[in-house]
Amino acid sequence: MTNFAFSRIVFISLIALLMSSEPGNSKSDIEANEFMNTLSQHIVNIVTDDKLSKAERNEKYYKLFVSSLDILNISKFILSRYWDIATPEQQQEFINLLEKITVMIWANRFQMNYTNESLEILSISNEDDREWLVDSQITNKNNDKINLQWKLRESDDNSFLIFDVLINSISMIITQRLDYNAIMRANNGNIDKLIEIMRTKLSQLQASH
Predict the structure, then answer these.
(1) Is the alpha carbon torsion for 87, 92, 96, 102 positive or negative?
(2) Longest distance between any two alpha carbons in the chain, whole Å
(3) Fold of domain 3-208
(4) E-assigned strand segments in 53-159
(5) What's the rounded Cα separation, in Å, for the pair 105 and 82?
(6) Which of 17, 79, 170, 191 is the most exposed place for a label (fewest CB within 10 A)?
């Protein structure tokens, strides 16, 4: 699945959460539900604020998603075995670039064409001590069903962060891991080359936005 498809479905589902989410039974279930609703409301506010310039809108997107994504653990997972051989400077550069690329892709694809989409929260469950799964299903205007799962993690301050999104059982971070590891293998494990490619990708996204 392409980044466009991932980001569009994620956006639609966040909007739909505002209209259809049902809180779970436990305190943490309710908190996970509230986290998703709050994130959705922030996105709607950004998208619908006509007073924002493009630069201001992009900055708000960036701040919102940086504060909502578990970017450190996502970075470690995506880079996998290459994380341990990277220098601290390379690790930080990878995190910074991945963060900016992810936010740019999502921001570029956000659209308000969600009126014919609906989402139902099926369940909110505790996967382990600090990980939660929000199970949901989108129904589009053609009555097609799309299964969507959010993996949330509790941070050290007990707030929730998004670790992964699965669309019809396809993991966003596993897809990214496969893509980035393919680049690493093609370049003999050269992390600097990967960083160079990521910088080029980011420049392309910024130029097209």
Answers:
(1) positive
(2) 50
(3) Nuclear Transport Factor 2; Chain: A, (3.10.450)
(4) 118-128, 131-139, 145-154
(5) 24
(6) 170
**Angle at which helices 3-20 and 27-48 cross, to 10°:** 110
CA 2/CA 7 separation, integer angstroms: 9
Contact of 31 with 69, CB cutoff 8 Å: no
Q: Quick one: tokens of 142? A: 């053609």
Per-residue pLDDT of the chain (209 residues; tens, 9 = 90+): 555 455 555 555 554 554 444 545 555 777 877 887 777 777 767 777 888 887 888 788 788 888 888 999 999 999 999 999 999 999 999 999 999 998 877 766 554 444 455 666 778 888 777 888 888 777 767 787 878 788 999 888 878 898 998 888 889 899 999 999 999 999 999 999 999 999 999 999 888 76
- Distance between CA atoms of 152 and 127, rounded to whole angstroms? 10
Q: Residue for token digits 């003999």?
A: 188
Q: How far apart are CA 28 and CA 32, in angstroms?
A: 6
